[in-house]
Design a protein that fits this description.
61% of the residues lie in helices and 2% in strands. It has helices spanning 2-7, 11-35, 42-60, 62-72, 88-96, 126-130, 134-139, 142-174; strands at residues 114-115, 118-119. A hairpin with a 2-residue loop joins strand 1 and strand 2. The two termini are 20 Å apart.
């Protein structure tokens, strides 16, 4: 049995490798990316879009419901391994936004980025932002769901635009040597 466990990929090791890659890229290319005339103006718009999404979800009670489900009831969707939905590009975007990453998994059995009060990074994969479990779907009215979806659309559109631009720049500057920017998996 021990032999089988050792053959499984370690999701913590995988996200640590992605974080290290994002940090290395940021050291080399971060300043240039931050000054890019197409990328720079989108960064504050993206932060504002995340704030708007968070506000809409807070007002609808989804954050509280996630807290109850995860912390109080010990269930929750943000399980170990989910952190690997984060691509190197999303991690790099977090660094560009001044976000720090946890040094280790804070909540056992949960996503590497989950703390006692929720997610600890700003830029998150689409799955993490646009997933509504059955519990949420049952508690939200159609009007609330439509509003949240509209607000999230702005955030996710900007996330896609930013990560696409970052990828284009890095491919131009590196001669397309690094092709693992968008890898997910766990």
């Amino acid at each position: 049995m021990r032999y089988l466990r050792s053959k499984r990929p370690d999701p913590t090791r995988l996200i640590e490798e992605k974080i290290d890659t994002a940090k290395e890229i940021f050291i080399v290319w971060g300043d240039r990316l931050l000054k890019d005339p197409e990328i720079a103006p989108l960064l504050p718009k993206y932060v504002k879009a995340v704030e708007n999404s968070n506000q809409a979800m807070e007002e609808a009670g989804t954050f509280h419901e996630c807290y109850v489900c995860t912390v109080l009831e010990g269930k929750g969707c943000c399980k170990i391994g989910l952190e690997n939905e984060c691509t190197v590009l999303i991690l790099l975007l977090n660094l560009m936004l001044g976000e720090d990453f946890p040094e280790e998994r804070e909540v056992p059995g949960r996503c590497f980025f989950v703390g006692p009060r929720g997610c600890k990074i700003l830029a998150r994969p689409m799955l993490c932002r646009d997933y509504f479990c059955l519990r949420h779907l049952n508690m939200l009215s159609d009007k609330e769901m439509a509003h949240i979806t509209q607000v999230l659309n702005e955030e996710l559109t900007l996330l896609h635009r930013l990560t696409s631009l970052i990828r284009e720049r890095l491919e131009d500057w590196t001669g397309k040597f690094l092709l693992e920017y968008d890898l997910t998996g766990y």
